[in-house]
Write a structure and sequence with these properties.
The structure holds three protein chains of three kinds.
Chain A (H helix, E strand, L loop, with lengths): L1 H9 L1 H26 L4 H27 L3 E4 L10 E4 L1 H24 L6 H20 L3 H19 L5 H32 L4 H14 L5 H18 L7 H8 L2 H26 L6 H19 L5 H24 L5 H36 L15 H15 L5 H15 L3 H26 L15 H19 L1 H16 L2 H8 L5
Antiparallel strand pairs in A: 1-2
Chain B lengths: L4 H18 L3 H25 L19 H7 L3 H32 L13
Helix pairs in contact in B: 1-2, 2-4
Chain C lengths: L12 H27 L6 H4 L28 H10 L1 H8 L6 H23 L1
Classes of the chains: A mainly alpha, B mainly alpha, C mainly alpha.
Chain lengths: 523, 124, 126
């Protein structure tokens, strides 16, 4: 038993990527066998087992990285870097990987009840598990072209999942997402081409070492490297919803099934931010880009919340709210990049941004799952037509209220802790205008979220919804679990900061990461 | 003639972008998408071609002639790694195009038109 | 106004000060809302709504909210949206109206966005 455990624990990083990938491909087979031999929905439970196993592989890695501060490096096929592909699990990777695996688990549990009446469920779980494999692959990889391939795996599965209900709106949303998403990933490929042409290697650690040499020889940063950096920022920024590249986001989130909107909001944005940080701050060592992130973050915050004020559809409102929260994260991360001002402010800003990333990945999927529960019972997400559902669906109403208060930044929930860190950093770098704008946007956030809550859950019930009952148990479990996490991280923000703490280390101090990945082999 | 690889690749990319922005037909937009991605693939292969700084590089196939002098062979051949990357990327883009075209067929069945100006139920 | 150091922003008094300010703000908002409600015209009572039916008991039928267009019984809908759209008219008519749902418009924004990103990064890094 111990021998077995030791062998598995050597290969844990690749198991974390391989289990959802292979499990996803086996799912249609299980579906066919399940239909033939018994009548239970075997695909649901098989997907649940795979999601649980994926989450379990993250736990020993998390204990090692966050508790011990180690960096796990796994070389595929035993080839030495930089000529082979490696997986490197450091603080930033394990944060993104944990969130991706956790949100996938919650969404699979939710889908067991939500998708019960749909056809073609084996393909749904196939795509969902492959998307999870893609997300974990992006966070764990140490090779830039491997990052592009996993990014495409995640994106293509999400294009197909957004179009799952083949209604006119779903297809339209999926097509817009496809066209814009492909332009984003093609920009990333072009950036890889330029960087490879300049340096000649594809390993992220090796690239970060050699690009410094290139700019030293050229006495200043050459124009092609600037172009490559802009292409990378554009490619990843499109995925996370940075203005002006955000236009696909509301259409895709509105048209997708609610659990898919949850995994897009919680999983792909987190992984996109992790990849963006790894490429700009670690590969290019361009911490000065923080100024641009601050500016774009402010614009994103303001535009997202203003447009969310006048939305009538619940999922579209939550999508614009997600764009607004991404503005907060960019503001925090941008403040973290300005290491020249004083390293303690930079660390504070960075911790605020990353903690807000973690919190956003908890309460945004919670709100989307609650919207899904409402749609499951009522059939529409247009807020003008529904009302007064609080008495009929008490669990949904309570968890939605917790999510609303957490997002708006009310103490003692988790949103307050992370937004407080961002406000404090804005004051400490002597730019109180940042704090003022952030506070005003926070007030607007509270306004439109409370409006959404009162329109959906309070007030009189329309005639056609008299017989609406409670949602089934499998929908309630993930909502309750995420709401409990909101409360826990709010009362004990130190726990969240401990999870997030190791994430900034590889971005400011490259040496441990580079040494761990290259293993002392400097060609 | 000065090397035309990079300008032609960038030109293909720009023609693809023009097709996506200004053509009012979903299938023409998918063709623009293919042109765009193939422009970047051409760019990537040209990077492998030009990375050796040799006049006329030879294909990276190890024949009997070069078996004794492998370092000279490596210095004179095209870099094969970008070609492998482009193969991977072409496969990815085929799946994207297949998905896009099936979406176009479904959209035509639902909306009856292929003009993106008229397929605008999600707005605001 | 009040200097941030007085409010104790960067020490452990900060969150407590923020909570107190939030509670005070919520109390002020509740006072304002209840004052405006008490000075607004009252809803008619049950007795006034009852129809005269020669001594029989006829319940007043309340029209369902989904039957009438502009709805005064629900405190949202048009009454929430129209003041916001009036105040920020410039923003909503330029930027919100720009989200037309047309894919070509979004792609033009994408191209301009990439160009702006290139220019900004060039300015920062040179």
């Amino acid at each position: 038993m111990m021998w077995f455990a030791a062998r598995i624990s050597e290969h844990l990083p690749i198991f974390a990527v391989a289990i959802p990938l292979l499990g996803g491909f086996v799912t249609p087979l299980i579906g066919i066998l399940g239909e033939r031999w018994s009548s239970i929905k075997a695909v649901d439970y098989f997907a649940l087992i795979i999601a649980v196993l994926t989450f379990l592989t993250m736990i020993p890695l998390a204990r090692g990285v966050i508790g011990g501060g180690e960096i796990f490096v796994y070389e595929l096929a035993g080839r030495i870097p930089p000529w082979g592909i490696s997986l490197a699990v450091d603080g930033l990777s394990i944060l993104a990987g944990l969130i991706a695996a956790g949100i996938t688990l919650a969404v699979v549990i939710f889908s067991i009840g939500f998708m019960k009446k749909e056809e073609g469920l084996d393909k749904y779980y196939l795509l969902l598990l492959i998307m999870c494999a893609g997300m974990i692959g992006i966070s764990f990889t140490a090779d830039i072209f491997n990052l592009y391939v996993f990014f495409e795996i995640m994106s293509i599965s999400s294009y197909a999942l957004v179009a799952y209900y083949r209604t006119g709106r779903s297809l339209e949303g999926s097509f817009k997402y496809l066209i814009m998403g492909t332009i984003g990933t093609v920009s990333i490929l072009w950036g890889i081409a330029i960087v490879y042409g300049a340096v000649g290697t594809l390993n992220i650690a090796d690239l970060s070492v050699r690009l410094v040499a290139v700019s030293e020889i050229a006495a200043g940063v050459p124009l092609s490297i600037i172009f490559a950096l802009a292409l990378f920022v554009a490619g990843f920024g499109l995925k996370i919803g940075m203005v002006p590249l955000h236009a696909w986001l509301p259409d895709a989130y509105q048209a997708a099934p609610a659990p898919i909107s949850a995994v897009l909001a919680g999983g792909t944005t987190v992984v996109g931010v992790a990849a963006l940080l790894r490429v700009t701050y670690l590969l290019f060592d361009a911490l000065a880009i923080g100024y641009m992130f601050i500016g774009l973050g402010l614009i994103t915050m303001v535009i997202g919340s203003f447009i969310a004020l006048v939305q009538e559809d619940l999922k579209r409102l939550l999508a614009y709210s997600g764009i607004s929260q991404m503005g907060y994260i960019l503001l925090g991360v941008g403040l973290g990049g300005l290491g020249g001002i004083g390293v303690s402010e930079a660390i504070l800003g960075f911790e605020g941004g990353m903690f807000h990333l973690l919190n956003n990945a908890i309460y945004k999927p919670l709100l989307f799952l609650c919207a899904g529960a409402v749609i499951y019972r009522v059939g529409t997400s247009n807020m003008e037509e529904i009302g007064g559902l609080a008495k009929k669906m008490p669990v949904t109403a309570a968890t939605f209220l917790i999510g609303v208060l957490a997002l708006a930044g009310i103490p003692p929930l988790n949103g307050f802790a992370s937004k407080w860190l961002i406000y404090v950093t804005g004051v400490q770098v002597n730019q109180p205008i940042l704090t003022v704008i952030a506070v005003v946007v926070s007030g607007l956030t509270l306004a439109y979220l409370l409006k959404a809550f009162t329109m959906v859950f309070l007030g009189p019930v329309p005639a056609k919804f008299e017989n609406v009952g409670k949602v089934p148990v499998s929908l309630q479990i993930p909502m309750l679990a995420l709401a409990a996490l909101c409360i826990v991280f709010g009362i004990l923000p130190g726990l969240g900061l401990e999870l997030v703490g190791p994430a900034w280390e590889p971005l400011f101090d490259h040496v441990p990461y580079v040494e761990a990945v290259l293993g002392g082999v400097i060609p | 003639m000065f090397p035309l690889h990079y300008p032609v690749a960038i030109l293909m990319f720009l023609v693809g972008v023009y097709c996506l922005l200004y053509r009012r037909n979903l299938i023409k937009m998918v063709i623009g998408l293919v042109l765009l991605t193939d422009g970047v693939h051409l760019f990537l292969v040209s990077v492998g071609y030009n990375i050796r700084n040799v006049e006329n590089p030879i294909p990276p196939i190890l024949t009997e002639r070069w078996l004794d002098s492998i370092p000279e062979f490596a210095a004179q051949s095209v870099d094969p790694l970008p070609q492998v990357l482009v193969l991977t990327s072409i496969v990815i883009d085929i799946s994207i195009v297949a998905l896009a075209l099936s979406l176009v067929i479904y959209i035509y069945n639902k909306y009856g038109t292929l003009n993106p100006h008229e397929i605008r139920e999600l707005r605001g | 106004m009040i200097a941030p150091s007085v409010l104790g922003v960067a020490s452990y008094w900060g969150p407590i000060t923020a909570s107190i300010i939030m509670v005070v703000g919520a109390v002020i908002a509740w006072i304002a809302v209840s004052w405006s409600r008490s000075s607004a015209p009252q809803d008619p009572t049950e007795e006034k709504l009852a129809t005269y039916a020669c001594g029989e008991e006829v319940k007043a039928e309340r029209t369902r909210p989904s039957d009438i267009e502009i709805d005064e019984t629900r405190p949202h809908g048009e009454r929430f949206f129209s003041p916001i759209k009036e105040i920020f008219k410039g923003f909503y008519e330029s930027i919100w109206a720009g989200h037309t749902g047309d894919l070509s418009t979004y792609l033009i924004w994408l191209v301009f966005g990439i160009v702006i990103l290139i220019v900004l990064i060039w300015i920062i890094l040179i």
